Every structure is written in structure tokens, then in C-alpha cells.
Amino acid sequence: MPDFPSASPQDSHVIVGLSGGVDSAVAALLLKQQGYQVTGLFMKNWEGDDDDEYCSAEADLADASAVAEQLEIPLQTANFAGEYWRDVFVHFLDEHLAGRTPNPDILCNREIKFKAFLQLAEQLGGDYIATGHYAGITRDTDGYKLTMAADRNKDQTYFLYMLGQPQLARSLFPLSQLDKPEIRRIAAEHKLPIADKKDSTGICFIGERPFREFLSEHLPDQPGDIVDTNGNRLGQHNGLMYYTIGQRQGLGIGGRRDHDEAPWFVAEKQIASNKLLAVQGHDHPLLLADRLTAIEPHWVAGKPPESSFTCLARSRHRQALETCQVSVVNEHAVAVVFDRPQRALTPGQSVVFYQDNCCLGGAVIDQVGTSTASN
């Protein structure tokens, strides 16, 4: 257990976000075993998905209800669809229209799971909120720290870097020291009805449906040319929003007689001309960069450790941590230089910083580049 909260579990009321999955169910179970007064809360964040074949809120609510009944805890429900549309989804669409690749799950954590949910939990008399995230929280004389989960393969601190001291002070992550097999074992041992339920994947409001199909329902197609580095036309894309840097699948330009058989990858979205630049080879030089600028920095401690510091960073979830030098340009931007070139750094995604297994914070990638010396 972390060295907080100061109040004993028996004197604390925790509102647990029950999603209908095994992680949140075991989180609720563990908290109850520790003596907390536990209430479950099922959050609906997307309208029109009750009967959706890809993402059924109705089925998840039924599973959450079954878990709450098994654990003998009350279950509340909340509809945050309006907040999600306004604070997460509109931004998601705007970023795609601007040619960037956003990560809505990061914004969802900040705006919904640790803002709207926390505010409602306070109204329900909760002292803390808890979720099934794979992350940890510790506290020392400098404040609360967001720490990596013991199961590094499942660690979700990348998605939580926008949390700050007020959120961490009121949050619990019961799964911080457990791996997935142990969580499923605990669920089965206590006969939780979702012990063998498949993990959800993909963006929460898209579910398992094809991403292009979903996006086309909300943004008009904007076809344009796919070109090589010489400007030669290779084919047609349906809209830059459907592609991300480093993508291989779905280009439809393989087997050309005027090029070798090496696979093609997206290297750049040329917004002004609506062209998609493709290159051949997984490690083509145009897919590699050793520096970036990032905007909207957020620091878990409320401020950066120093104006310039060395740390580890990742620019995608599950990506290996890489050594870099971070320079704080101002409160709105940071500059990052990696020790070695990184592949497919993508504007709109986040770069997240770590020291001593703690997540320091992160920022949204704005521009990428390569030093002259590394060319």
C-alpha cells in the first residue's frame, strides 16, 4: 500500500469507476477487502452506443451491475456524454482536420475520469475515486508522484500524465503492484462474473470498429495524391485524417514497376497541398528524427524539475523508454533532443517524461526534426 491516505480505510468512502471489465472489478474487490466503504460508478461517455455492435454500453453496464451485486456494493450510473463531446471529441475532430494525430484517451482521463467523475464523486460523498488503471501513486515531502505500474507491459502512466496534485491527492490505483494474470486469478478465485471477459481495445468511443469507417461518419473525405520524394504520383488517398506517420497498411500502392518491392510507409502529411508523402523502407531517413518541439506541457508536480534536464521519454504508448534532454522553452513549450533518432514521431501525439520510475509529465508533439550532425 502507498503511504497515503492518512485516514484509515474504515473511515474513507471510495467511488470506484466500474467499467464492466475485469481490472476495475478487481480494483473494487481489493478496496473492499482493505476495509474501504466502496461504491461503484458506471460512466457512459458516448451517446448512441447502447445497441452498437462494436461498443455496447448496455452490455458493459450489465456486467458492472453483476460485479456490484457479487461484491455487495451499491452501483451508481452517470452520463458524461455531453462533457465528452464538448471537452474531448470536438478537439479530436479538430486535430484530425489540422493534419495531426491526437490521443483522445489522454484528454478523456483529464476531462472525464479525473474531472467530471471526481466532481460527481465529491457530490456522492466520496473521499477518493479509484480506477483500474495500471499506475501507482506515492507521496513524499515534495507532494504526490505518479509512478509506473509493477507490470511494465500494462503500465498506463503515458495516458495519465495530465493529472496533477489535486487529482492524485484524491485518487487510488489498487492495481499498481499486480500483473494481468494475477488480476484474472483474483477475479476467478472470487467468482467475479467477468473473470474471463476479453479486454477492450482501441479508442473508447470507437470500440472495435474500423477507424476509417468511424471517422468518415464525422468528417468529409478530402481525397488527394500520394507522392514519393520526387513528387511522382503513386496513388490517391481519401483524406489525410485517415493516416498517421509511420503507417504501412492501407496505402494501396504496392507492386509498382517503377520502384523496388520494399514496403511503403507514410512519412509526411503535406497539409497545404493535401498530399501524402510515402517512402520505402521501415527505417527510411524521413521516418527518423532526433528532436522535437512540444506544446501545452503539463507537469505532475506543478512545475518541471529544472529548466533543462535529462530523463527518459516515450512518444507512444508501449514504446521503449529513450534517453533525452528536455529544455523548457517557456510555460507553453518544451524542446526535446533524443540521444538517438526516433522513428515516426507524430505531431498531435504526446511525449511523456520519466525519472526514477516516476512520470514527470508530458507535452503534445508539435514539430519534429533532425540535427545536421545526424544526417
Q: Proportion of β residues?
A: 25-35%
- Approximate helicity band: 10-25%
Count of DSSP H/I helices? 8
CATH architecture label of the largest domain: 3-Layer(aba) Sandwich
The termini sit apart by 49 Å
Could you state the oligomeric state of the chains shown?
Answer: single chain
Average the pLDDT over all residues and give the rounded result.
91
Total domain modules: 3
Radius of gyration: 22 Å
Shape: globular
Order of helices and strands: EHEHEHHEEEHHEHHEEEEEEEEEE
Instruction: Provide the CATH superfamily of the largest domain.
Output: HUPs
Key features of this structure:
6-stranded antiparallel barrel; globular; 3 domains; Elongation Factor Tu (Ef-tu), domain 3; SH3 type barrels; 23% helix; 8 helices; 375 residues; alpha/beta; single chain; Rossmann fold; 30% strand; 5-stranded parallel sheet
